[in-house]
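Next up, sample data:
>
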Amino acid sequence: MNSRLAGIRASFKGIDGFLVTDINNVRYVTGFRGSSGFLLITKAAKFFVTDFRYKEQAECEVKGWDIVIEKEKRAGTVSMLAKKLGINRLGFESSVSYGFFDALSKKGMVLKPFKDFIERLRAAKEEREKAAIKEAVRRAESAFLEVKPYIKTGAKENRIAMMLEENLKREGCKCIPFDIIVASGRNSSMPHAKPSEKRLDAGDLVVIDWGGEAGGYFSDMTRTLLIRGADIGRKKEIYRIVLEANRKAVSAISPGIDSREIDNSARDIIKKAGYAGFFGHGTGHGIGLQVHESPHITWNRKERIREDMVFTVEPGIYVPGVGGVRIEDMVLVRPKGAEVLTRLPRKLEVI
């Protein structure tokens, strides 16, 4: 935690102090696992502020910080501490609400917004973070393998999702990272379809998107299965294209590369196959304390890939009336390429 604080202080430019309000960033810097709190950091001081509900929890989890229990509106507490610390120019996270910014702007300080300040530090994972993410992957994959025998003709989408959630919790996940997606047949052409009462039918593509948790860190993966049936040749071909795009993107990963190049490597495969209009989302996203964080692997956002980043690679093709295919893996950036963290087979399974 001290190295994270040092990284923040080393990046101070043109400010006397920095205000951290995003609760995920608060946790990253201090280890606090509650839902309410903020940090005020200067070159010499570090204050953690929360409310009465988390007084005891903060005393256990937040070591080495001056702990303050706020008793008035947040902007007033920030102003009081800023005066105490001699802060005239205050940096803050640009993700704050307008209401909070407006209240803070009336307190007489010069305010300077910082976008993705701590998020950029979070993007490169430390060893213990990598270990937690790998365990989150293991738990998710183990839960899926327990459910897999029940994925067959006649099974309901929502029942499969429910069983998967139950098994994730049995594996030790304290929370489910996001709503599990189980989408079959026509439903599978919607990238974020919700599980329904629909039963799996012969010839259906079945997209399953789920994740696990370990130590507050998350995993995220997708596998697409195909139910045996007549006239499935085109669906097999779509799967082959997506798998090629997945592999191409993974092979393109290396430290220093522009994130857009990774996206392009997958998108070009799909475009050349004639399905450019059926792949509308980004190729991947960072994952850690949040399911979606830096880096963003997409065509419209430039980010330099660094060693120790963890992100997904998830190209897809979604054809209304036919179905969809997404193959999502998680990768860790190593000095000479990518280590694929997800171990489940990628070869098409016709069940």
The longest strand covers residues 205-210. Residues 124-340 form a domain with the Creatine Amidinohydrolase fold (CATH 3.90.230.10).
